[in-house]
Amino acid sequence: MSDPMLHHSPAAERNREPILAQLQALLGPTGAALEIASGTGQHAAHFAAALPGWRWQPTDLTDAQFGSITGWALHGGARNVQPPLRLDVQRSAWPSDRPPFGTSFDLVFCANMLHIAPWACCSGLMQGAARHLAPRGHLVTYGPYLEDGVPTAPGNLAFDASLRAQDAAWGIRRIEDVAAVAADAGLVLSERHALPANNLLLVWTRTTPAAG
Question: pTM higher than 0.70 for the full model?
């Protein structure tokens, strides 16, 4: 990138179109989206520009990428991207350094976080999404997963080993384990989409409330 503020993720560049296609099929014309672990900001800018009726709220654990997030939004003409906020999924209040969100979100989007974060972040993500999702909202997660009864691609096995070698708390997660944590938060897996490079896009929705 010629602009030093625009940090670049080759993976985000490659996967943005397949993810966007799924989001466009899932979402209505308008809504409010909360992105967890926005990273470079490439996803936020691309998705918000393609979904002009949506207000997109990017977040990240620290402010190290905030300049890049803002820069990509400006670069892509995505005026519906809000200023980024700090958000630690393990904290009970979202965002982390200001009053909690006062309105709900129709979409909570999180790409490529669960496998490069401690397992406790999965519970934090599910519990936080359940707190802040609108009644008919969706949590969408994207990344590599392990699945019972489904052979794991050799590339994902190698990736999992490299992650665990870097940090014992990291690693590709089993969908079944993630689903159990989601169920504790009142969320259920409603859609599974296979995307390129052995990644999955998973859609989580609220479980049906008990009658009465």
Answer: yes
